[in-house]
Amino acid sequence: MTHYELIGSRGCGSAIVEAALRLTGLDMRLTDIPYLKPGPGRERLLTLNPLGQVPTLILPGGAVLTESAAMILHLNDAAPHAGLAPAPGSIQRVRFFELLIRLTAAVYPTFTFGDHPSRWTGEGEAARRLRAATDARREMLWRNIEQQVGAPHVLGDQLTALDLYVTVMTHWRPRRRWFDEHCPRLAAIADQAAAHSQIADVLHRHFSGAGD
Question: Which of the listed residues 28, 30, 166, 196 has the most CB atoms within 10 Å of its CB?
Answer without folding.
Answer: 166
